């Protein structure tokens, strides 16, 4: 499910920040799984651990990709939508991995570094379902357009770009992947070299290209043993399915219906139309379209997830449980799917369902400890059981993960008063206080200066 945030989500439901043109991050199990599948062999080839790399999806249909300190790769939805092949997306990711492995971000100026630090300290926005006024499973608006604008001064030098190109080719060849995708993607920007800066795409502005650079890449790739590698039909179909989903969620339903016409019976078209029908308020028709997808591929977990999302967000938690449960059965170790099922169980509210939800949320939080939406749902579950102190501790965790240190400290204090001294939960509340309170004092002192 698509959701705006860094807190959770199961299908695609982006909640964009209020200002016009504001950007947000989205969470989606299906898209993230695909991107990590693309990136894992490249990260390994670069000597990086995949679990240390964060891949984030920016809800912006302009073509851009960038990296930040801390080994984080950001991809605009526009990059995903415009890619003709998985190989082109891998080319982009390989190039960005080249910037990480080359330590290019370590050479940013002090002002840039401080701005980036500030952005990431304020990025975790808590409870999206409340802040964004949306009932979906855990979306959290991560950053405003002003915060993302800070990334614009991360313009790489031409030397860094050339080095990242060479590294990308090396990584792709080491992984047994054709580096052709690098040039295939860059060719899209070739004409922008002669445009005024305001007419250039964000990617071109931060990744200066030239005809000479593309020619150098072409020569290098022509010597590659893997230049004739091609994506399989299955890999291309997977990308097209994800593109249909993104388009369905981010474009207006009217535009979706114009692009994916009714007589187009392909899976991506039916996926996009199902989402557009749902967003148009035609729940029954949307479910009917999703059911046709499930009939075509009953073992694909994300069709079931979408059906669960549709029901849950339409106030039908009882009907959401079965499809969400099926998605978890088909993809058992996916935290975002587990959270989707848990929220439906909590909303339905039977005692045994609440207990099951707590187990699912604890499991998902072992994988994503900073998922603020999961902590919020856990607080609801404990509250439903009358376990007030544990509910307060969960709110403290949710606030801490969202960067709201004042609220985190307040609820950690309340939780400690009711928790048994020395227990693991009591110690965790103490840990939150030991981190939050000094930072709050330092912030107060800074304001007094």
Name some characteristics of this structure.
Zincin-like, mainly alpha, single chain, 449 residues, 22 helices, five-stranded mixed β-sheet
Q: What is the global morphology? A: globular
Instruction: Report the count of strand segments.
Output: 5
Average the pLDDT over all residues and give the rounded result: 84
Low-confidence blocks of residues: 5-22, 113-155
| N to C succession of SSEs | EEHEEEHHHHHHHHHHHHHHHHHHHHH
Query: What is the strand arrangement across the widest sheet?
Result: 1-2-3-5-4
Strand composition percent: under 5%
The helix tally amounts to 22
Distance between the termini: 46 Å
Determine the CATH topology of the domain at 3-222. Answer: Zincin-like
Q: In which range does the helix fraction lie?
A: 55-70%
- Kindly provide the name of the CATH class of the domain at 3-222: Alpha Beta
Radius of gyration of CA atoms, rounded to a whole number? 23 Å
Which structural category fits the helices and strands? mainly alpha
Biggest beta sheet summary: 5 strands, mixed
Looking at this structure, what is the CATH superfamily of the domain at 3-222? Metalloproteases ("zincins"), catalytic domain
Descriptive overview:
- The protein has 449 residues and is mainly alpha-helical.
- Among the domains are: 3-222, Zincin-like (2-Layer Sandwich); 387-449, no CATH class.
- It has 22 helices and 5 strands.
- A 5-stranded mixed beta sheet has the order 1-2-3-5-4.
- Helix 16 (317-330) runs antiparallel to helix 17 (335-348).
